[in-house]
Amino acid sequence: MNVYKPLVIGDLVAKYPIIQGGMGVGISLSSLAGAVAKAGGIGIISTAQIGFRDPDFLKEPMAANMRAIRSEFEKARAIAPKGIIGFNIMVATRNYAQYVKEAVKAGADIIISGAGLPVDLPEYLAEAKKLAAEAGETVRTKIAPIVSTAKSAMVICKMWDRKYKKIPDLLVIEGPLAGGHLGFSREQLAYYGADTRDVPQTYNQEVYDEEICGIMKVVKQFEEKYSRHIPVVIAGGIYTREDVEHAMELGADGVQVATRFVTTEECDAPMNYKQSYIDAKKEDIVITQSPVGMPGRAIRNGFLDEVTKRKEEGQKAKIGHCYQCLEHCDPKNIPYCITKALSNAAEGDLDHALLFCGSNAYRSDRIETVEGVIQDLMGKSS
């Protein structure tokens, strides 16, 4: 049986070194995040179109999302009064700064941010802290960028150091086996052997391990400068206790896990969404091009086949309504509306849905519990 140290992020201490990855739209909300936090991990709510069920979402998506940030956090906190609960906020989100400030205002213990480099995240946190101080409140929110290469780690650390005299409270390294939007080009994915239906057989773990070691060296530079430890968490393809062991052997302080938590009782996704993971075969998991211009990993279905067919025939999608979700999105030239495709998934309309997943989704064979998953990852189950 393995014995792992708690994950310490400043004054935050998680019993188990497990962060549940953020999954939007509507897959990791209060139920999943609260359950993970209650079980001793760190629960993460995704802010991606978080208010999609609000009656006014179609008319005022931004306002609906702001309301949902607070309501989902409060529901998660009710599940885990003493647990660690935070948000995943995509840099590509339109009005990104407002999402950060609202998450801080709601009481987030931590904000994890990727889908772009969060170069100004410390500034938005400082502004939120100032507003809180004026209201007589104290903000303890930690901030953590997601990086995939040593180059991106150096860029973010140097930028935060130079502009804000700050280093990350936590750094998440997300590898090429992750689900959803990926921080790699198609060429990089092919280089690592992560752009085929043979994953993980063709995946070159040793090559990406070298990149992880390079990121660790960058982190060490800034740890020495600030005389403070920066916890590092490895994400992407973490599905078994052996994966956890490997991450720890590389020097990680913890792991971030998403796909494994989808097929749990507590996950916010509808049952047929969870069943799509259980039914998926290895060859069903593909790399697709997202409307935001980034490669993404998803389960092949009729929706993706139709998108591919339209592209081959040179047809443009008819976007009936723009939800103003992403900073760089041109409704006239996108293959489909990602908000609509992901919200359809969260509502159970799988025939018209984008089913994001990690490379190991096909390994799901049953519905588990959050507690059971955590115990298994920690090597404590029978």
Describe this structure in words.
By secondary structure, the protein is an alpha/beta fold. The protein is 38% helix and 14% strand. The protein is built from 13 helices and 13 strands. The strands form 3 sheets. An 8-stranded parallel sheet has the order 3-11-10-8-7-6-5-4. Strands 9-13-12 form a 3-stranded antiparallel sheet, with no helix packed on it. The protein has a two-stranded antiparallel ribbon with strand order 1-2. Helix 3 links the parallel strand 5 and strand 6. Helix 2 packs parallel to helix 3. The longest helix has 22 residues.
Helix content: 25-40%
What Rg, in angstroms, do the CA atoms define?
19 Å
β-strand number: 13
The N- and C-terminal alpha carbons lie at a distance of 10 Å
Largest sheet: 8 strands, parallel
Structural class: alpha/beta
Chain oligomer state: single chain
Order of neighbouring strands in the sheet with most strands? 3-11-10-8-7-6-5-4
Q: Would you list the SSEs in sequence order as H and E?
A: EEEHEHEHEHEHEEHHEHEHHEEHHH
User: How many H/I helical runs?
Assistant: 13
Overall mean pLDDT stands at: 93
Show unreliable segments: none
Report the principal-axis shape: globular
What fraction strand? 5-15%
SSE inventory with pairings:
Elements: E1 7-9, E2 12-14, E3 18-20, H1 30-38, E4 42-46, H2 61-79, E5 84-88, H3 96-106, E6 110-113, H4 121-134, E7 142-147, H5 150-164, E8 171-174, E9 180-181, H6 186-191, H7 205-226, E10 232-235, H8 241-249, E11 254-257, H9 259-262, H10 271-279, E12 285-289, E13 295-299, H11 302-312, H12 338-347, H13 370-377
Helix pairs in contact: 1-2, 2-3, 3-4, 5-7
